[in-house]
């Protein structure tokens, strides 16, 4: 994916040149920019698609938490002056999106969650991080998807490198534990903006019942399941995902 990573003060991000509404994407704990390649390609010309690179591995140990990442997004959005944001988050990025939406609701026009944490998630398990065991990491990465071949060697290598970097691994564990502590069940009623839930029917990390619970607790939520699809629908079923997202964004931005 040929994209330019921009830098402004301490913020790193991607921003397309589309002149339409702002679509801000938040990646997960092991998220790579390639996770959003399909969205960037599809929406980059007609939307200003923004992907802040979350400092998951750079935050101090005291700030290595979901709250620290929400604070980072808040500071980034205010520095850039974004308004009328269509916010989308996958996995931990969805959790951050939920917390940020409550914190700064007046700037958010819509919310899209896919495989979001915040209610329940099954992560790497009690043995994580298992440093030095490439086959273990490959298997866990493959389990993210319905089709194991979606976990390319490049993606597995990225996860393996993170796990085997002690400083990064410590921050991953700290952030994952903080996400479990920050359960959103009693706060979702505060999010009174149009919300789209796109979920993989075969998601083993945030299973389908999690999506159904989100739909129950969020005041204005629509739920779509994608068949034969795991935890990252925008990667595994990009055409179906983009079609649902496009229809939603047209409606909430009064473009249809």
Give the gist of this structure:
The chain has a single domain, classed as Alpha/Beta hydrolase fold, catalytic domain (Rossmann fold, 3-Layer(aba) Sandwich). The chain has an eight-stranded mixed β-sheet, with helices on both faces.
What report would you give on this structure?
The chain contains nine helices and eight strands. The chain is 39% helix and 17% strand. Helix 2 (66-80) crosses helix 3 and helix 4 (134-142) packs across helix 5 (153-163). Strand 7, helix 7 (208-217) and strand 8 (221-226) form a beta-alpha-beta unit. It has one domain: Rossmann fold (3-Layer(aba) Sandwich), CATH 3.40.50.1820. The protein has an eight-stranded mixed beta sheet, with helices on both faces. The protein has 256 residues and is α/β, with parallel strands linked by helices.
Feature tags:
256 residues; alpha/beta; Rossmann fold; eight-stranded mixed sheet; globular
Radius of gyration: 17 Å
| Strand residue percentage | 15-25%
State the major sheet.
8 strands, mixed
Instruction: Identify the CATH homologous superfamily.
Output: Alpha/Beta hydrolase fold, catalytic domain
Identify the CATH architecture: 3-Layer(aba) Sandwich
Oligomer: single chain
Chain-wise SSE layout:
Blueprint: E1 6-8, E2 11-15, E3 22-26, H1 37-43, E4 48-52, H2 66-80, E5 85-90, H3 92-103, E6 108-114, H4 134-142, H5 153-163, H6 166-181, E7 195-200, H7 208-217, E8 221-226, H8 233-236, H9 238-252
Parallel strand pairs: 3-4, 3-5, 5-6, 6-7, 7-8
Antiparallel strand pairs: 1-2, 2-4
